[in-house]
Task: inverse folding
């Protein structure tokens, strides 16, 4: 009896130790992979653009301002030409063809005119960071600069950074009417759904014209 | 105290702690409510009142927040984005000292998310400051239009926009409420007792406008103001702006690891029990 029980008990002990160890290690590793990747390292240094400041918007109908050509956000190292964005066949905002540039939605106001000017850019490509990778790191009060075709510069001040589930996208507060010149910067965020191949949320930066 | 009693106490403690932490988690986001902001713009719509300096004071602060100099008849400022709260609008003759007694003043309570036009209206003899609440939301795919009658020359006007009559008989000084119209390029037609005028105006969907009937020398004219502008076409839903290259790998299921650890612990416990039972009789034997 003894001869049989001793090795069995020892085997149980050994097996138990190994299983508990493997379980604990696996648990520790697995619970770490679920975390949101935080942009590491410093953003590229981008100088504040220099140029003539655009005057505030005119209240009269039909007052035209020059089209936007470049977006500069020094605090997160963004400096990008602005492509033109329309709508997809399903009526959604068309994303830029390249992940390394941002685009201005031509159905929205021109930056510096009355209404919300909407600019979209990718958070990432299949391989790495996109132009708006650090967008969610913006804070209230940060400055955003737009250069326009006539060389003038419009300066916006960030008022809020929000994340919304795409299923509950706040269309009215992003695209809806406002009485002054405002800016919206849109990218993806939240959880990535690998099966569907897209993010479940949008990160939206709200900004108003800075005087 | 028995072991089960201690366990029960621990469970209760953990439950209370969990509730407290959960409560904190819930209270966190709710506490960070958005700060209140609204919009204000200033206008001079009194035909025979000379140019004025318009001062905007935040309530209780004698230092003017905004001063608009030499504002003449027919001038409307752009909207100022201001913190919600009470403001005083004061008008002084153009060039008058900032400390002098204002010709007239009024208070306006700016509510979070609302916009106001504060206008000097009426004839010089009966000049007063009127606070208009401006709409910020148009019915979907429509434009909103209202009229402010600021012409003394033609003191009663009929005003139409395309085929829509905005006001049949609008006296001086007065304003209509907003009317929803189909967007497009439309003709504004203003007919007074002795004069009439027309103007073209292009209205976008989801945008809001004010038409102001003004004296222009001996003529009348219409100024069209953009109160609020939205996107010409509202995109549907969210935007697909990422491919997942920087996304965290999806969290691996934790259950197998938990199960492995549990099995291990049970095996350990089992093994130890067996070993200790085996040793006990041996000790007695000695």
Result:
């Amino acid at each position: 009896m003894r001869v049989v029980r001793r090795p069995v008990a020892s085997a149980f002990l050994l097996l138990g130790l190994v299983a508990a160890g493997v379980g604990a290690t696996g648990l520790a590793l697995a619970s770490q992979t679920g975390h949101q990747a935080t942009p590491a390292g410093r953003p590229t240094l981008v100088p504040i653009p220099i140029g003539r400041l655009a005057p505030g918007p005119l209240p009269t109908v039909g007052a035209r301002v020059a089209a936007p050509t470049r977006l500069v956000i020094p605090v997160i190292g963004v400096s990008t030409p602005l492509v033109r964005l329309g709508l997809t066949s399903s009526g959604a905002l068309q994303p830029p063809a390249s992940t390394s540039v941002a685009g201005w939605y031509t159905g929205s106001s021109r930056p510096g005119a009355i209404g919300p000017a909407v600019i979209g850019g990718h958070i990432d490509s299949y391989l790495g960071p996109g132009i708006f990778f650090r967008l969610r790191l913006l804070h209230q009060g940060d400055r955003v600069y737009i250069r326009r075709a006539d060389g003038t510069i419009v300066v916006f001040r960030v008022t809020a950074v929000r994340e919304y589930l795409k299923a509950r996208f706040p269309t009215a507060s992003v695209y809806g009417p406002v009485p002054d010149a405002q800016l919206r910067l849109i990218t993806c965020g939240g959880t990535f759904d690998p099966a569907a191949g897209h993010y479940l949320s949008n990160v939206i930066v709200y900004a108003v014209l800075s005087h | 105290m028995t072991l089960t009693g201690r366990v029960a106490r621990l469970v209760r403690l953990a439950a209370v702690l969990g509730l407290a932490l959960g409560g904190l988690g819930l209270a966190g986001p709710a506490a960070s409510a958005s700060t209140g902001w609204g919009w204000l713009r200033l206008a001079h719509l009194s035909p025979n009142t000379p140019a004025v300096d318009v001062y905007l004071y935040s309530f209780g602060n004698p230092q003017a927040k905004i001063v608009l100099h030499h504002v003449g008849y027919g001038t409307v400022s752009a909207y100022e984005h201001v913190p919600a709260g009470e403001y005083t609008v004061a008008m002084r003759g153009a060039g008058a000292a900032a400390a002098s007694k204002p010709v007239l003043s009024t208070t306006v309570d700016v509510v979070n998310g609302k916009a106001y036009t504060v206008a000097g209206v009426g004839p010089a003899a009966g000049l007063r400051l009127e606070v208009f609440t401006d709409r910020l939301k148009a019915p979907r795919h429509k434009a909103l239009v209202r009229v402010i009658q600021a012409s003394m020359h033609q003191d009663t006007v009929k005003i139409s926009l395309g085929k829509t009559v905005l006001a049949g008989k609008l006296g001086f000084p007065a304003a209509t409420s907003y009317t929803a119209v189909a967007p497009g390029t439309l003709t504004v037609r203003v007919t007074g007792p002795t004069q009439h005028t027309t103007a073209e105006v292009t209205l976008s969907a989801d945008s809001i406008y004010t038409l102001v009937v003004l004296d222009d020398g001996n003529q009348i004219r219409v100024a069209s103001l953009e109160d609020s502008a939205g996107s010409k076409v509202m995109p549907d839903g969210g935007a697909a702006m990422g491919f997942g290259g920087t996304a965290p790998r999806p969290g691996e299921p934790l259950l197998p690891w938990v199960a492995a650890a549990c099995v291990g612990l049970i095996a350990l416990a089992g093994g130890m029990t067996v070993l200790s039972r085996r040793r006990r009789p041996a000790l007695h034997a000695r």
Q: What stands out?
A: Confidence is low (pLDDT under 50) at residues 14-34 of chain B. Residues 255-285 of chain B form the longest helix (31 residues). The longest strand of chain B covers residues 207-216.
